Amino acid sequence: MSLPKQLIDSFTEIKKSRAVQNDFSEDALQEFASILNRAIPSPLNSSAYAVYRFNRFKYLANKDRFIADIKDFQPYDSLILWTDFGNILEYFNLKQKFFLGWDKMKNKYRACPLLKNRQKQNSDKACNDAVKTVINDIVDKVVETVSNEEKNATELNNAKSIDNLETLISNMESDDDVVFNRMVEAVKKYKLSNGIRC
Question: Distance between terminal CA atoms of the chain?
């Protein structure tokens, strides 16, 4: 089976990307997501799209086996770009370095810095306070939606310390695309409305 050139080129490009080289700035993460999005063929390219769908089916049928089969087996290792965001981050040793998620509304990958990386990179107190405020607002909204479940509401209210928030949002990222998308949008809107550059 011949792999599409755009997949192999994207894999080569992503290995050289700034995010893989430990640059987790917003520009570097947007570049990373953009490369991932280019790796997925358009349905209009019927032959490339057929190869994509076939390999997605194989991956979804047995994820562990698929990953084991392609690992370090060139050029088939490039198929990692057609798996899920967790496997992609793990393959490039980027787990817990930044958020990566699939935006179901736009059918594309999106990436966002983790709060702890943002704190390390920015000594600007106003920026950190702005991010904390947005995260606390999101936690408040989540608490509101689970108000009928007292146990969950208590856990979320107790998570307002910054260390617990990082863990909470990290756990939610893989389980709840809605919270992830809200967080990304809320941070962007807050920064834009307050003229804060983080």
Answer: 45
Query: What are the structure tokens assigned to 93, written together?
Result: 């040793």
* Contact call for residues 128 and 116 (beta carbons, < 8 A): no
Nearest to residue 109, comparing CAs of 57, 181, 9? Answer: 181
The span from the CA of 115 to the CA of 94, in Å, is: 15
Distance in angstroms (rounded) separating the CA atoms of residues 129 and 148: 30
d(CA 11, CA 5): 10
The tens digit of pLDDT for each residue in 18-36 reads: 999 999 888 999 999 999 9
How confident is the model over 57-100, as pLDDT tens digits?
A: 999 999 999 999 998 888 889 999 999 888 999 999 998 888 88
Tabulate helix, strand, coil % of the chain (nearest 5). Answer: 65, 5, 25
pLDDT tens-digit profile of 108-145? 888 888 765 444 454 455 555 556 666 666 655 554 55
- CA 180 remoteness from chain centre: 9
